[in-house]
Specification:
alpha+beta; elongated; four-stranded antiparallel sheet; 3 domains; Surface presentation of antigens (SPOA); Chemotaxis protein chec; 25% strand
Length: 332
């Protein structure tokens, strides 16, 4: 419940009105106790929480950055795209807000059901077309007289940009965007019922000297299977898991690149200092190692494996028989 905080001037004015008799304190108290009635429009039923709308906004902020980079490289001119607003409205209201003749692209997002609509202001669409054909990016509107070549070039441009939609949504769901239709008249575009709630993401777009809006309409049916993922809790949980996985992979890669000393022990023996001082040429030291028993292989001076000696490609080598089960069952 949001409480309105009055300024000092408003408090003084209220006290003055009560003191002068212009306002009755008992009447104000009575009004406050009466039940408040708020008008609710069922045609504008809100099916997404503020938290979910914020998540959709974050996704499309990333999408706007990806589109900016893509179109800047593709058109070789100044491009700036940013999120202007994210609202939920009835589909009928979205269609009414779209110009009678404009550029409309529909995409399927397998495995999600339904389709989304991207409406591109003709000023933006024709500036893109002019740059694609080698022009300065001049904006002109001839949406009613598009040639087949112009239609094909526009379709290809927005079809290639669909990969950026896949990247933007990758943190929530793996989708395969496919451009299914190119239309100029919104009256021929009836995807869902008029009262169906849709999320409309509006993108401020500037290409060269031209500017306009790109509107993305996402029906509720598309988002319904992933609504639980559109929450701050899910984002934080996923982000934490992603950071842990990345840290684990990095540590694993670094450990795998570390070098260690590996040496097989042919045998050991114990002698006194007096015997050591009297050692001479041709003296023999007997090792406490039977020729029938396996040798111990040490890794950084720690016994790890039981091995047998031999040769491999004319070089001395050992073959691992088993892990060392000395004083520690784990071989540590």
């Amino acid at each position: 419940m949001v409480e309105e905080v009055l300024s000092q001037n408003e408090i003084d004015a209220l006290l003055s009105a009560i003191s002068s008799g212009e306002m009755d304190a008992d009447e104000l108290k009575k009004e406050d106790q009466e039940k408040k009635v708020r008008v609710y429009d069922f045609k504008r039923a809100l099916r997404f929480s503020k938290d979910q709308i914020r998540s959709i906004s974050r996704i499309h902020e990333n999408y706007a950055r990806l589109l900016t980079t893509f179109f800047s490289a593709k058109l070789r001119t100044y491009v700036n795209i940013s999120v202007a607003s994210v609202d939920q409205i009835p589909y009928e209201e979205f269609i009414r807000s779209v110009p009678k003749m404009t550029i409309l692209n529909t995409y399927s997002l397998k495995p999600l059901e339904g389709r989304i609509v991207m409406e591109i202001n003709p000023n933006i669409a024709y500036a893109m077309l002019d740059r694609t054909l080698g022009g300065q990016g001049v904006s002109f509107n001839k949406v009613e007289n598009l040639t087949e070549i112009e239609t094909l070039l526009m379709s290809q441009l927005f079809e290639k940009a669909s990969t950026k939609l896949q990247e933007a949504w990758a943190s929530i769901v793996d989708i395969d965007p496919v451009m299914e239709d190119f239309e100029v008249n919104p009256q021929f575009l009836q995807m869902v019922s008029p009262n169906e709630t849709v999320v409309v993401v509006s993108l401020n777009t500037a290409i060269g000297e031209a500017s306009g809006m790109i509107n993305i309409c996402i029906p509720h049916i598309v988002l319904e299977p992933i609504i639980s993922k559109l929450s701050v809790h899910y984002w934080m949980q996923t982000a934490g898991k992603k950071r842990n996985d990345e840290a684990y992979e990095k540590i694993t890669r670094n450990i795998q690149q570390a070098t260690v000393e590996v040496k097989p022990i042919l045998g050991e023996s114990t002698i006194t200092i007096e015997q050591f001082l009297k050692l001479g040429k041709k003296d023999i030291i007997r090792l406490d190692q039977s020729i029938e028993s396996p040798l111990i292989l040490e890794v950084n001076d720690e016994p790890k494996f039981l091995v047998q000696p031999g040769t491999y490609k004319n070089r001395m080598s050992v073959q691992i028989l088993d892990t060392f089960k000395g004083g520690n069952e784990d071989g540590e």
